[in-house]
Amino acid sequence: MKSLSLWLAIAAASFTWNCTTVSADELTCFELRTYYPNEGKLKALHSRFRDHTVGMFEKHGMSQLAYWVPVENNDNVLVYLLGYPDREARKTAWKGFRDDPAWQKAYKESTADGKLVNKVDSVFLHLTDYSPKPPISASETPRLFEMREYTCNPGKLENLDARFRDHTADLFENHGLTNLLYFHLDEGQEGSENTLLYFLAHASDESRAAGFKAFSQDPKWKAAREASEADGKILVKKGVQSTPLKATDYSAVK
């Protein structure tokens, strides 16, 4: 989750879509933000991002990787992913954004009839050593995205990483499941010692189902799973959570 060759040539050197020209190699700090709007305010929140927030994030040096909403958006949330050179750069960028008179004006006008957001969840992430590097590739046609969260039994995260590094990631690609980004949670956050969070892209829900079916039946995957769990199960019971996502209209990545 492929793209025009010209876009890829540009993107390989630097972020140019809704981002500053920060080299991908400079991004070491990532932030997954989930906004829970107040009742009836999701449309207004999208408008604020589309008309104001996205441009101001770019102005203040935030690398915007993608904006999504869940396909089944029962909680009416907005999910997006940002990147920074480090935590200090993040602090500076957000201070500049919040202190910007243009943002303060947009915020005041957008909340004249009440605040748009009830709650914000923020999770800090860093790439695994086997993750593809940002930016996320573009596409000529809209895709289905997927956020997958794996929870390991104590002490098994390294085993899970080894399985993805040596087997799973390549097998995903073999079966049409496009690897995007793989993350661990930064230390000090709940789940940092036993969580893998990653993103895939699919041409459609049908291709996703077909890809995972072929992957699950692949003898190479079965052998890898068996070998990796010789000393015990890696994942806790019901340790896989999947959230299908679709890009917002103002997300540079579709």
Describe the protein.
This protein is α+β, with helices and mostly antiparallel strands. The protein folds into 2 domains: 122 residues, Alpha-Beta Plaits; 120 residues, 2-Layer Sandwich (Alpha-Beta Plaits), CATH 3.30.70. The chain contains 7 helices and 8 strands, in the order αβαββααββαββααβ. An 8-stranded antiparallel barrel has the order 1-3-2-8-5-7-6-4, surrounded by 4 helices. Helix 2 packs antiparallel against helix 4 and helix 5 packs antiparallel against helix 7.
User: What is the strand tally?
Assistant: 8
CATH architecture of the largest domain: 2-Layer Sandwich
What value does the Rg take, in angstroms? Answer: 19 Å
* Biggest β-sheet: strands ordered side by side in the sheet: 1-3-2-8-5-7-6-4
Helical proportion, percent range: 25-40%
Which structural class is indicated by helix and strand composition? alpha+beta
Uncertain segments are: 1-20
